[in-house]
Inverse folding.
């Protein structure tokens, strides 16, 4: 539910569908940023897993959606990215976070899913590696280890990712990442988030999917996981 700010209601099932990137009357992130996260995903997560003054960290915060939602909810927040679009984002590679161990109360991350989007010219951008290359998951695992390190014990992180179907080949990007995350975190739940605003969401692509017997991507995974220290 997200008609107006007054009517914001927490999601109660594992299927989330937000037709617009933003909610309320103020921007959260930049809905023109390629790959921007629907702000209501972050709103739901912060409501459930954090409280006021908690420290929220986003290691790949892009246009700053996490920063805007967290500030609005009176959480402390640090957003990093290699592609710096705003003064309140710190330039940093997510594989080496400049934070002490056990400092963050919550981490949100919406990482690249493959090399489908050009985010910046920075050669360290993980979005320059195809998810068909196992190295893609090795690099994301380095990010996962850092998230584990900076999270306080028993605190939660959420990772948004989608699969890939390209040139007649399916890659279960979500499952392949999940296998890496399981090494470090305990799963609290997995949410399916409906995909909107894709360039392939046109009649031509829907016709092609039927004619050539493939499926357009309809959802992303949101892995909600806890740093379990025992
Ligand atoms: C899907 S976008 C994130 C969108 C963001 N949540 C928002 O709402 O705007 C993925 C981001 O990962 C960043 N990125 C890719 N590799 C990175 C790395 N090694 N370290 C930090 N950021 C990286 C990209 O620059 C891009 O902004």
């Amino acid at each position: 539910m997200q008609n107006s700010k007054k009517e914001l209601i927490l999601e109660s099932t594992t299927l989330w569908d937000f037709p617009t990137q933003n909610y309320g009357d103020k921007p959260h992130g930049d809905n023109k940023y390629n790959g921007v996260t629907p702000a209501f995903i972050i709103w739901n997560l912060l409501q459930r897993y954090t409280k006021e003054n908690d420290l929220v960290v986003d290691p790949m915060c892009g246009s700053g959606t996490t920063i805007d939602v967290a500030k609005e909810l009176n959480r402390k927040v640090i957003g990093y990215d290699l592609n710096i679009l705003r003064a309140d984002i710190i330039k940093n590679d997510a594989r080496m976070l400049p934070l002490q161990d056990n400092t963050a109360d919550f981490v949100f991350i919406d990482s690249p899913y493959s090399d489908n989007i050009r985010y910046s010219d920075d050669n360290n951008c993980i979005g320059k590696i195809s998810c068909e290359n196992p190295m893609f998951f090795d690099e994301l695992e380095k990010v996962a280890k850092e998230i584990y390190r900076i999270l306080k014990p028993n605190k939660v992180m959420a990772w948004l990712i989608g699969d890939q179907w390209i040139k007649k080949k399916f890659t279960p990007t979500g499952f392949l990442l999940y296998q890496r995350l399981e090494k470090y975190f305990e799963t609290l739940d997995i949410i399916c988030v409906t995909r909107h605003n894709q360039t392939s969401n046109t009649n031509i692509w829907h016709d092609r999917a039927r004619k050539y017997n493939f499926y357009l991507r309809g959802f992303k995974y949101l892995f909600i996981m806890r740093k379990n220290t025992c």
About this structure: Residues 29, 33, 35-37, 60-63, 65, 80-83, 93-95, 110-112, 119-120, 124-127 surround S-adenosylmethionine (CB under 6 Å). The chain has a mean pLDDT of 94. The two ends are 37 Å apart (CA to CA). Residues 5-227 form a domain with the Rossmann fold fold (CATH 3.40.50.150).
